[in-house]
Amino acid sequence: LRFDEKVRVVVFKSEVKGVFCAGADLKERAKMDNAEVEHFVKRLRSLMDEIASLPVPTIAAIDGYALGGGLELALACDLRVAASSAKMGLIETTRGLLPGAGGTQRLPRCVGIGLAKELIFTGRQIDGQEAFSMGLVNHAVPQNSDGDAAYQRALALAKEILPQAPFAVRMGKLAINRGMEVDIASGMAIEGMCYAQNIPTRDRQEGMAAFREKRPPQFIGK
Questions:
Q1: Which GO terms describe its molecular function (predicted)?
Q2: Is residue 41 predicted with pLDDT exceeding 80?
Q3: What is the number of alpha carbons within 13 Å of residue 48 lying toward its C-beta?
Q4: How far apart are CA 80 and CA 128, in angstroms?
């Protein structure tokens, strides 16, 4: 996906009805020794980092349970859409654990430190509507009879992104992600560098031409 220039947006969904991702298999985990657990979680954290660093926008379609590592997977995505009835939570403390695949870092960056601490310390599960009210998800939608309401809304959101200039969208994502980790002056410099890379693109020239000619732009990602 990272190197396929035809990919504009990636949507993560589950094929299991009622479950986005239920997290780690604790029965499997119980059979591991300490070293194996550490290696397993390190690989899991690396996977989440790979998802987070995909150059194109990513959307998690949460139509059911997203618990523990399942919510960490959703947090690694740029955008999250949930069914109102979906259940989410970093429940690790209820099992003698703590989030180990990015949850302690991505949740506070998403909802703020106070809410993140409350959710992690209590291991509380919240539904899609509660997640929307605290900014954990971008949209909460009523579940439909097929059980894929979040996926359908995620597809609609992806279709809003698709017509936009692909390289500009990628640079926008990069500027936001890198800029959020530094002070604003450094962030402005990052934005400037991303903007400079976008200036010579054919898509920028097409966007300007389409505006002058009062027609929809035809972007090609170059």
A1: enoyl-CoA hydratase activity
A2: yes
A3: 24
A4: 10
Q: What is the DSSP string of 93-108?
A: GGGT----SSHHHHHH
Q: Tell me which of 68, 92, 158, 175 is the catalytic residue.
A: 92
Q: Which range marks the domain in which residue 192 is found?
A: 166-213
Same domain, 137 and 47: yes
- Residue 93 — left, alpha, or beta (φ > 0 → left; ψ -120 to 50 → alpha)? alpha
Tens-place pLDDT, residues 112-157: 999 999 999 999 999 999 999 999 999 999 999 999 999 999 999 9
Residue tagged active-site, from 72, 82, 131, 140: 72
Residue 129 lies in a domain: yes
Strand partners of residue 28: none
For residue range 80-113, what is the model confidence (pLDDT) as tens digits? Answer: 999 999 999 999 999 999 999 999 999 999 999 9
Q: Is 92 a catalytic residue?
A: yes
**CA-based nearest residue to 64, from 81, 52, 82:** 82
Q: Is 72 a catalytic residue?
A: yes
- C-alpha closest to that of 75 among 94, 98, 47: 47
Q: Do 138 and 45 meet the contact criterion of CB atoms below 8 Å apart? A: no
Catalytic residue among 23, 68, 69, 102: 69
* 120 and 176 assigned to the same domain: no
What confidence score (pLDDT) does residue 217 get?
A: 92
